[in-house]
Specification:
mainly alpha, Serine Threonine Protein Phosphatase 5, Tetratricopeptide repeat, two-stranded antiparallel ribbon, 19 helices, 1% strand
Length: 439
């Protein structure tokens, strides 16, 4: 029912008289349903890089939000929907690499919210807006503005006693200081974060646990980067090793491969070729396993989508569960969006009450300290937008150009270290080099 209404609205978007008539014929409940559906589908189109379709839905959503404000004056939901569409517009701009335009939108939202009376203003919302604006400025390369906004957000979160978000803002500050070349200041900020995260274990007070292992691992990695660029290779290797142990617990394969490669590269620089070879080999194995998992993820998603198309809803939902599990393991934001949507859509087809869960996923705000990861190489998918979306088809049969380049660098280093250490595996790595150069 709602999908038919939306198709009708999109078809008549160019004719303002017909569009006005359709909107007038809708009751308040239908308007709310349409707005929630639009918010769900904007995420899907952004994940697939279908920017034109996302823009159409953003413009339509704005029209419907204004219509709802005029119709439902008692329970005014306009502010909630206006903020949601502003966030989606910024994510839409960031997905296209237009970070400076996005930063201007976030900045305008910050100023508008700051000018509200104190009774209507919530400092935690203002802090989140400042942090989002800081991320956009950082993406545009404006580190000084980003640093100023991050410090402001940190102060606001501290005043609200919001420890987790305050630590996240502080981590952002450490990353920005590193970008500006202030390694010692960045290191001091990282140490303060680690002290705040550390909690003694109940079983053994000599051991230390961390309240947020993911943030602790990121902070250790930042400290390792600071030490490396400060010229302390030994301390950097030690910190990389600690970060690697933390990432084993979080099961982030991409970061494991990156860190093992980094340690191997540092050992290669210090002419310790045999030890470097072990780390580089481990990185190569993790990368190969990750690429295989990516292929399995793509296959699982396609199978689930095929079952959905054939009307085999139960098998489709099972397929989406497998794809969702693999997407979470690989931290693939595009597939996470698509598989979640497919899972909820299949559940709704089975008659399960998953509508609210689907809407909650779409409306869920991003954690302020996580930059939205936009993978490259998507095929434009032209459809009516309300069938299940196509899978994100990456270039080079699943390996993007950036991944291919980094993998070739890894194989080159492996070949060099194997040759220096007189390893019997040199012909194998040379064959890999030839294969990837012609790939």
């Amino acid at each position: 029912m709602i999908e038919n209404i939306l198709r009708n609205l999109i078809a008549n978007l160019g004719n303002k008289y017909i569009l006005r008539g359709i909107i007038k014929s809708l009751d308040v409940a239908s308007l709310k349903d349409c707005l929630e559906d639009i918010l769900c589908h904007i995420d899907i189109h952004i994940a697939e890089h279908c920017f034109k379709e996302a823009d159409i839905l953003l413009r339509l959503g704005k029209r419907l939000a204004y219509a709802l404000r005029q119709r439902d004056k008692v329970n005014n939901h306009f502010d909630k929907y206006a903020e949601s569409f502003m966030r989606k517009r910024c994510h839409w701009l960031e997905a296209q690499g237009l970070f400076l335009h996005s930063a201007k939108h976030w900045g305008a939202a910050c100023r508008k919210y700051q000018n509200l009376p104190k009774k209507k203003r919530d400092d935690s919302v203002l802090a989140a807006l400042c942090l989002d604006a800081a991320l956009a400025y950082a993406g545009a390369g404006k580190t000084s503005q980003a640093l100023r906004l991050t410090r402001k957000a940190n102060k606001l979160f501290d005043n609200q006693n919001d420890q987790s978000n305050a630590l996240a803002a502080r981590f952002n500050e450490a990353s920005l200081l590193y970008d500006e070349g202030q390694y010692s200041e960045s290191d001091l900020t990282c140490v303060s974060i680690m002290f705040s995260l550390a909690t003694p274990e109940i079983e053994d007070s000599r051991k230390i646990a961390f309240s947020d292992p993911t943030l602790a691992a990121k902070t250790l990695l930042q400290m390792a980067n600071n030490s490396e660029f400060s010229g302390d290779a030994e301390d950097s290797s030690r910190l990389y090793g600690q970060a690697l142990k933390m990432y084993y617990h979080t099961a982030d394969y991409k970061k494991q491969a990156e860190i093992t490669y980094r340690i191997g590269w540092l050992l290669k620089k210090s002419d310790r070729f045999e030890t470097a070879l072990q780390y580089l080999k481990a990185s190569f194995i993790i990368r190969m396993l990750t690429e295989r998992k990516k292929a399995l993820l793509r296959q699982a998603y396609l199978k689930a989508r095929a079952f959905w198309g054939l009307g085999m809803t139960q098998r489709a939902q099972r397929g989406f569960v497998i794809a969702l599990f693999l997407a979470e393991q690989l931290s693939d934001s595009a597939y996470l969006t698509l598989t979640r949507y497919g899972f909820y859509k299949a559940g709704y087809g089975l008659g399960l009450n998953l509508r609210s869960a689907m809407t909650a996923t779409a409306l869920e705000a991003h954690k302020p300290w996580t930059m939205v990861n936009i993978p490259g190489g998507f095929r434009h998918y032209s459809s009516d937008g309300y069938a299940l979306p196509a899978y994100p088809n990456r270039k080079n049969d699943g390996i993007s150009f950036k991944d291919k380049r980094s993998l070739l660098n890894l194989i080159n280093d492996l070949t060099f270290c194997a040759g220096a250490a007189d390893s019997a595996e040199v012909p194998y790595y040379r064959a890999q080099q030839r294969a990837f150069r012609t790939y």
